[in-house]
């Protein structure tokens, strides 16, 4: 018995002597103790938590080299590898985790929407529920500050830049022909259906080094990664019909949309000032195929549309009017892959192809344009640490443009060009803390057409001023080759250039968002020519210059009034430029000094309805009055438009929708056309240029057939 007792005492003594004590104190970077931090040896049950003084202590029987883990919410995890005998009296300082939701966001010049966006300004749903948007991305974005109201055009004009200075990308790959063709004084629309997209990023300046060939703005559209259900969407509208279907399999899915629009019935009920020989007609189709792989996602997006119409427009210099006929076919295919290479590396690759064909007939002239364009991109991301991320990649743009022109004096003349551009970019996200972050970048481009290399630095930074607010700064240098209406006649120019300087303040809390942003843009190397219109015999130079400066405000509130969501935006723009055939540096005729937009949406529970309105006010735009001295010497009256919409939820799968643009029938004037010769009194007569249709009425019935009987059709609009 005495021998057994002795053996037990010896064994206990050995075990006690084999146990090691691990202890220490945990602080943050300000030397404040952290209570409740979790400490343990990796792969064991040995561990503890810190007390109110940040202290911890526990014992272990492990020996040799071990891994000690210390973690706490909102802080980066601390890891120590070493012999347990040296893990005594440790003093550990945890750094704040810069990936938390309350961390600073690099947001100067950028409006984002989507499930992964920390700062949502515009939601994808807003595209189809904003009264004035009529289901078009551009229409919804025109309610944001920084955009200019150019009602007769319909494209995006951003901060003093013309519409050609904004580029659109789908899943990171360039769209070369994003708008449907149209005629003079009739607004265009974007080609693509909002129902296939769930992410929008609209940058009004200072954007990433990843994107080039855009002087003013980029719009990024992201297709849905994974549809939530199988369904069929049926739309019957006053102007046509639409049909969509989504199918899901184990690792893949397919969504297709088809639509047909014919404005003949609408023009018969609501005639406008045009004599329509063949009213506007278009048929379009889109499809997105998705395939999950072991470490990534492959997407294939395709779109096709065919448009045709014929009309005679009023013209002060032609009593019979101006005859215009158009046939257009457009094909766009986009394939992309995004995947994980390992714990720190990810890869993105994509390519797009565009084939666009336009046949115009204008009076006695016949024009046939054919464009074939390719964009290929390869990008890598390396997460070196939570505080440092590296992005780099390369891309290639290739455009082959051909035009054949003929009239009653010329049988056929050919124009065209090949515009090939190779680019490389590098960029880093540097998070000093949760409050301070930088994004420096550099982009280089080589233009084969001009045999010229350009280098464009970019830099943005953001500082968190409080838990709900931050300030941001951004600088960028941007290059863009001239557009096709110039390059088809002259290929001896060089890239146009602009520099952006942006200061942003943002407050975001409790379903309320406020943004204020000041900016300055400087233009150089803009294209000038010496004729009324760009032509084969024009003299072209890169001697144009310009500037744009202003301040934008945005406020959105979905909290203060129950069931009511609204936003206000205002832009003040001061801009002048000397380009094209301008006689002097002047405010361009597409720029408004003041732009105001007010949008509201209210859900009425008893009526099972959402009602909304959108009001736009813009100051007058410049035009040249030949009866007075000077260039762009007058301004039109202000632009006003009030639009309303109503959506009635018949059942969870059925909805009736109606909208009216410019419901009060404001007679907006976009400018004036003057006679080529004066009358007997030496006075040049004029004709007001107004939108082809001052009002637009739209009624639709939408029906979703899905397995999820609880799905709300209102969320699908």
TrEMBL record:
It is a multi-pass membrane protein. Keywords: Cell outer membrane, Membrane, Receptor, Signal, TonB box, Transmembrane, Transmembrane beta strand, Transport. Residues 316-663 form the TonB-dependent receptor-like beta-barrel domain. SUPFAM superfamilies: Carboxypeptidase regulatory domain-like (SSF49464), Porins (SSF56935). Pfam families: CarbopepD_reg_2, Plug, TonB_dep_Rec_b-barrel. It is found in: Cell outer membrane. Its main location: membrane. Residues 136-213 form the TonB-dependent receptor plug domain. Belongs to the TonB-dependent receptor family. This is TonB-dependent receptor. It comes from Flavivirga spongiicola.
């Amino acid at each position: 018995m005495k021998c057994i007792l002795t053996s037990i005492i010896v064994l206990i003594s050995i075990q006690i002597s084999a146990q090691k004590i691990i202890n220490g104190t945990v602080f943050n970077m300000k030397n404040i103790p952290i209570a409740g931090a979790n400490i343990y040896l990796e792969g064991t049950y040995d561990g503890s938590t810190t007390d109110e003084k940040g202290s911890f202590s526990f014992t272990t029987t492990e020996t040799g080299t071990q891994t000690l883990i210390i973690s706490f919410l909102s802080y980066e995890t601390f890891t120590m590898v070493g012999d347990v005998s040296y893990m005594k009296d440790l003093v550990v300082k945890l750094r704040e985790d810069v990936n938390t939701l309350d961390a600073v966001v690099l947001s100067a010049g950028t409006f984002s929407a989507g499930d992964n966006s920390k700062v949502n300004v515009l939601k994808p749903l807003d595209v189809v529920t904003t009264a004035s948007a009529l289901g078009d991305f551009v229409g919804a974005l025109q309610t944001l500050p920084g955009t200019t109201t150019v009602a007769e055009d319909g494209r995006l004009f951003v901060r003093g830049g013309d519409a050609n200075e904004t580029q659109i990308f789908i899943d990171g790959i360039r769209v070369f022909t994003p708008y449907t063709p149209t005629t003079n004084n009739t607004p265009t629309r974007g080609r693509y259906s909002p129902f296939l997209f769930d992410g929008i990023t609209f940058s009004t300046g200072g954007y990433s080094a990843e994107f080039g060939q855009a002087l003013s703005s980029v719009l990024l559209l992201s297709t849905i990664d994974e549809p939530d259900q199988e369904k069929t969407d049926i739309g019957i509208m006053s102007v046509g019909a639409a049909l969509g279907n989504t199918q899901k399999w184990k690792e893949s899915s397919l969504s297709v949309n088809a639509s047909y629009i014919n404005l003949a019935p609408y023009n018969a009920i609501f005639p406008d000032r045009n004599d329509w020989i063949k009213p506007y007609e278009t048929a379009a189709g889109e499809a997105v195929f998705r395939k999950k792989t072991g470490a990534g996602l492959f997407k294939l997006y395709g779109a096709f549309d065919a448009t045709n119409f014929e009309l005679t427009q009023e013209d002060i210099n032609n009593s019979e009017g101006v005859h215009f006929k158009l046939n257009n076919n457009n094909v766009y295919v986009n394939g992309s892959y995004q995947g994980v290479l390992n714990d720190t590396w990810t890869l993105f690759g994509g390519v797009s192809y565009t084939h666009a064909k336009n046949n115009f007939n204008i009076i006695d002239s016949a024009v046939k344009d054919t464009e074939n364009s390719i964009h290929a991109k390869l990008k890598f991301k390396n997460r070196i640490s939570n505080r440092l991320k590296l992005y780099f990649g390369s891309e290639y743009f290739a455009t082959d443009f051909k035009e054949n022109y003929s009239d009653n004096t010329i049988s056929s003349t050919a124009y065209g060009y090949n515009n090939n551009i190779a680019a490389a970019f590098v960029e880093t996200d540097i998070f000093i803390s949760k409050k301070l972050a930088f994004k420096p970048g550099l982009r280089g481009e080589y233009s084969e057409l001009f045999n010229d290399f350009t280098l464009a630095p970019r830099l943005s930074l953001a500082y968190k001023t409080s838990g709900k607010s931050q300030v941001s700064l951004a600088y960028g240098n941007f290059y863009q080759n001239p557009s096709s209406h110039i390059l088809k006649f002259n290929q001896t120019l060089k890239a146009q250039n602009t520099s952006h300087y942006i200061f942003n303040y943002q407050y975001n809390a409790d379903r309320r968002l406020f943004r204020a942003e000041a900016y300055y843009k400087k233009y150089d190397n803009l294209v000038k020519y010496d004729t009324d219109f760009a032509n084969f015999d024009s003299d072209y130079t890169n001697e144009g210059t310009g500037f744009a400066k202003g301040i934008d405000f945005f406020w959105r509130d979905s909290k203060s009034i129950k069931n009511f969501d609204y936003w206000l935006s205002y832009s003040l723009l001061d801009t002048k430029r000397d380009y094209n055939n301008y006689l002097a540096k002047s405010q361009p005729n597409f720029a408004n000094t003041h732009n105001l937009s007010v949008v509201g949406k209210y859900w009425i529970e008893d009526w099972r309805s959402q009602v909304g309105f959108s009001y736009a006010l813009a100051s007058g735009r410049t035009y040249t009055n030949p009866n007075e001295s000077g260039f762009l010497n007058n301004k039109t009256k202000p632009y006003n438009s009030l639009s309303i919409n109503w959506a009635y939820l018949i059942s969870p799968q059925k909805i009736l929708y109606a909208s009216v643009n410019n419901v009060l029938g404001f007679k907006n004037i976009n400018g004036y056309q003057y006679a080529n010769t004066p009358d007997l009194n030496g006075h040049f007569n004029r004709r007001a240029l107004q939108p082809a249709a001052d009002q637009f009425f739209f009624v639709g019935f939408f029906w979703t057939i899905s397995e999820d009987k609880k799905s709300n059709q209102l969320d699908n609009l």
